[in-house]
Each structure stands twice: as structure tokens, then as C-alpha cells.
Amino acid sequence: MKKVFFFLLFSIALFAQNKTISFASEKLGEKRTITLSIPASYEKNPTKTYPILVLLDGDFLVDPFQGALSYGNYWDDFPETIIIGIHQNHNDERVDDSAYDNAQGLPYEKGAAFYEFISQELLPEIEKKYRVAPFRMIAGLDTTAGYLNFFLYKEKPLFNAYIVLNPELAPLMEKRIPEQLSVLKSPVFYYLSTSDDEINQVAEPIQILNDNLKKSNNPSVNYKFDLFKSTGHYSQTLMAIPSALHQIFECYKPITSAEFDNKIALLPFGYVDYLEKKYATIEAILHLKTPIRINDFKAIEAAILKNKAYNELDQLAILADKNYPKSMLAEYELGLMYEKKEEYKKAMKRYQNASQMQEIGALNKTMMLEKYELMLSKIAPKK
């Protein structure tokens, strides 16, 4: 078996920073420089897995992608992600890496070797050494953006999401990409962008590709196209990157005010079912097991109270106990249910139990004891 030499030139203690990896590739017959960014939480969460983002043109795309991902993660809109930036230090190298046969429109010579380097060497080695979720993304700009489409030319594509920024398309791609996407059965994200200040040689194939993709009705394909106005070939990238990431991670986001007002609050019932399905979708599409956020519990609680569907608080408590078994959340929800149903003795007992458990979010011991006293005051007059 051929050996792949993987040299980590950094300390494990500094995972939060970008580090340089020298990767000796037998497929390419040379060493390649890789920028590897491991999330800050990696060492603190030994069971957590992370999606992968492969960046062609890693020399200049790592920083804008990392900035967008970091900002989105701060607000919990995006998950933490392992970034793998492949350096292509000069234009000749990125052109050679992306080489294709003009007649067949398929990877050729070094372009074919570069394909095997990514699929057979780089990704397997990263996935062997790090805890990765089975969700892969890839991105590139112009030359490399066109090239990354070759990874779609399989019955089971190598990546789950394709971020195609102002691509220079190989022959027949305008037709082949829609054909490939139309028959896929597993979920795939495809993002395409360009600017209104592009040369016709690049702009026309992109427009044809967009027209063909819009005709596809495959529900497994999540497609988005952005035409940025008053931008140039390179400046459109800074607007396209967050747009693409929001498309891919839309289902990951916490419940928003608009989602609450326009979807959840309007339901006649099934509020807890909605919450469970939301997180089941995250796992099904992004392959991430994400604990239900406390704020999302509170949003569902608010919808239940708004619609006076108090019995669903019991179901919410079961879900809370499953996600946060040591916290007071489940007992609190049961206490709230009995309080709203005016079963004050039962509510008092639940609030008392909650006061002995771990605090979570805005729920604390003082609040539970105040609830206990309130329930006691409601019982006392009856005596």
C-alpha cells in the first residue's frame, strides 16, 4: 500500500489558529502546502464532530471564509467547521491543477492528478486524523470554481455542497451539471454567483447554466444564484461567501422571530413536534447531532402559552429531560403546565424539585423558589 506522508507542523494546543501542513502527494509527485483551521472547541468537546470545507485557492479564500464562518458561529447561525485551504501559489499552478481536455471536457493530466490528490489522499487523511461529520463542502473562484464541478460527475458526488464563485466553465458544463443534479437522490447544495461586470466569455456560460438549473425540479437539490450588481470579478466574492453559507446552513439556525410569527405561532397544535422535526432535519441534511438550544425550547414554550395548548408542556418536558437531564428545565415545564391548569399543589412540587437541580439559561434557583411561594399562596386561601 502506498504511504501518504502527513506532516503536522504545529502544536495540538493551538488548534484555534490557522496552521501550515506540508502534504507529500504521490498522485501529484510533489509536496503541497495546506492551511488547516481547526475550531477552538475541538479539544474541549471530544465527542463533537465538524463539517469540512475544502477551499481551492486557499491562499486568499481562507481568510474571508473563516471570517464569515466565525461571525456566523458567534450568533449560532453556522456550525463550527474544519477548513482545509489548498495553496495554489501562482496563477500557473491553479491553471495546471484545473487542467481539462477541451474535447471531452474532463480533467486532464495534472488536472486528473489533482482530482485524485483531493479525493484519494487529502480528504481520507484529514478524516482519519480528525473528528469530522459526513458533510463536505468545496469552494473556488473563477478557474478553480469551474474545476470543482468535476466532483459532481459521479453517481454519488464527493461533496454535499458546492460554492461556485464566478466560474470559468469547462466545455459542456452548462449541460452536464444540470443533468447530474437532476438525477441525484441525496441532498446537495449548489451555490452559483457572478457579477454584472463580467466579460461575455465568462458571463454567457454562467447565464446558460443558471437558466438550465432553474428548470430542474429535483427536490434533493437546493440551488441558489446571485448576480451582484455594481461589483467586479473579485469584489463579488465578499458578498457571495456569506450568501452561500446562509443558504447551506439555513436549517441549522435557531428559531427566528419571523419563523415564530409566521410558522410556529400559527399552528393549531404540534408545537413540540415542530421542534423535534427541526433538529431531525439538521441531523438528516448536515449530519450534525445538535442539542436543542435553550432559546428554541423557550420559543416553543411561548407558542404553547400563546395558544393555551398547556398539555403540550408535558411533551416539551420529556424532550427537555432527554436533552438536559441534569437541569431544572424539564421540572420547570411540568410546573408551568400544572400552574396554567390551576393544579397548584402539583405545580408547587415540580418547582420545588426544579430548585434542587442545575440552573440553565434564565432559569435559576431563586426563580423556582419564587414560583414555589406563588403556588403556595394560591393554595392557602382555599384552606
List keywords for this structure.
383 residues; alpha/beta; Rossmann fold; 2 domains; two-stranded antiparallel sheet; 11 strands
3D architecture notes:
It is a single chain. The protein folds into two domains: 5-252, Rossmann fold (3-Layer(aba) Sandwich); 257-382, Serine Threonine Protein Phosphatase 5, Tetratricopeptide repeat. It has 14 helices and eleven strands. The protein has a nine-stranded mixed β-sheet, with helices on both faces. It has a two-stranded antiparallel sheet with strand order 6-7. It is elongated, with a radius of gyration of 26 Å. The model is unreliable at 1-16 (pLDDT under 50). By secondary structure, the chain is an alpha/beta fold.
How is the main sheet built? 9 strands, mixed
Mean pLDDT: 93
- CATH class bucket of the largest domain: Alpha Beta
Strand content: 15-25%
**CATH fold name of the largest domain, please?**
Rossmann fold
Into which percent range does the helicity of residues fall? 40-55%
Strand order across the biggest sheet? Answer: 1-2-3-5-4-8-9-10-11
Task: Provide the succession of SSEs.
Answer: EEEEHEHEEHEHEHEHEHHHHHHHH
Say which CATH homologous superfamily of the largest domain is assigned: Alpha/Beta hydrolase fold, catalytic domain
